[in-house]
């Protein structure tokens, strides 16, 4: 009976692992075609058309977006050149991978570069990242104290995922890669939404 129970447990675990792998594959499919790779950098690029808006209006709109999106926009923005229509900033996206390690307090952070190249009526937005930083807070277990730990690794460690042999590492890499890229996609889409509000607000004002 004990052997049967152990066998059933292993089968259930195997089915759970396969289900998680399928879920990771499904998540990765949702971002397929929305990113590219240049060397060790992973990029999300979007050309946003803001019709009938000048370069200066779009420039100011992006600055306003960065102010809303980051706690301290002044520390994020590295380059501001209104004349050439260029804004470059450095940000940080944070997430956890509790889908693999339930209850895990290990924080994953993805530093990224935000670049906006602005012209009359449109802007090319490029977000890029190459590194994942992690932080594990201090904790106690079995009477032992484990000090806080920090580290980093290249995002290329998470892709291609098919090169990973250990199933747990495979799933962790899949979730980290998905959440890293998706955070850039979300930021790009949020910026697009904010810029398009410029048009809708003006139309509303015109029709009052």
Question: Would you write up a description of this structure?
Answer:
With 208 residues, the chain is an alpha+beta fold. It has a single domain (34-206), classed as 2-Layer Sandwich (Alpha-D-Glucose-1,6-Bisphosphate, Chain A, domain 4). It has four helices and ten strands, in the order αββααββββββββα. It has helices spanning 2-30, 55-69, 73-76, 167-206; strands at residues 36-38, 41-49, 77-81, 86-96, 107-119, 122-129, 131-136, 139-141, 144-146, 149-154. Strands 1, 2, 3, 4, 5, 6, 7 and 10 form an eight-stranded antiparallel beta sheet that branches. Strands 8-9 form a two-stranded antiparallel sheet.
Cα separation of the termini: 78 Å
Strand segment count: 10
CATH class: Alpha Beta
CATH topology: Alpha-D-Glucose-1,6-Bisphosphate, Chain A, domain 4
Helical segment tally?
4
Radius of gyration: 22 Å
Characteristics:
single chain, about 210 residues, alpha+beta, Alpha-D-Glucose-1,6-Bisphosphate, Chain A, domain 4, two-stranded antiparallel ribbon, elongated
Brief rundown of the structure:
The protein contains four helices and ten strands, in the order αββααββββββββα. The protein is of the alpha+beta class.
Layout of secondary structure:
Layout lengths: L1 H29 L5 E3 L2 E9 L5 H15 L3 H4 E5 L4 E11 L10 E13 L2 E8 L1 E6 L2 E3 L2 E3 L2 E6 L12 H40 L2
Antiparallel strand pairs: 1-2, 2-6, 3-4, 4-5, 5-6, 5-7, 7-10, 8-9
Helix pairs in contact: 1-4, 2-4
């Amino acid at each position: 009976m004990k052997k049967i129970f152990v066998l059933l447990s292993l089968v259930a675990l195997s089915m759970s692992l396969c289900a998680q792998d399928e879920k990771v594959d499904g998540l990765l499919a949702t971002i397929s075609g929305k990113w590219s790779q240049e060397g060790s950098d992973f990029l999300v690029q979007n050309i946003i058309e803001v019709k009938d808006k000048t370069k200066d209006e779009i420039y100011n709109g992006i600055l306003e977006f960065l102010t809303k999106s980051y706690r301290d926009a002044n520390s994020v923005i590295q380059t501001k050149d209104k004349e050439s229509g260029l804004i470059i900033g450095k940000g940080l996206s944070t997430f956890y991978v509790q889908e693999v390690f339930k209850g895990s307090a290990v924080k994953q952070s993805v530093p990224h570069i935000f670049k906006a190249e602005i012209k009359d009526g449109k802007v090319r937005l490029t977000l890029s990242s190459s590194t994942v930083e992690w932080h594990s807070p201090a904790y106690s277990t079995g009477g032992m104290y484990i000090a806080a730990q920090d580290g980093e690794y290249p995002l290329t460690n998470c892709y291609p995922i098919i090169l990973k042999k250990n199933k747990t590492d495979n799933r962790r890499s899949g979730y980290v890669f998905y959440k890293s890229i998706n955070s850039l996609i979300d930021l790009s889409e949020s910026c697009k939404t904010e810029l398009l509000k410029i048009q809708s607000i003006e139309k509303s004002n015109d029709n009052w």
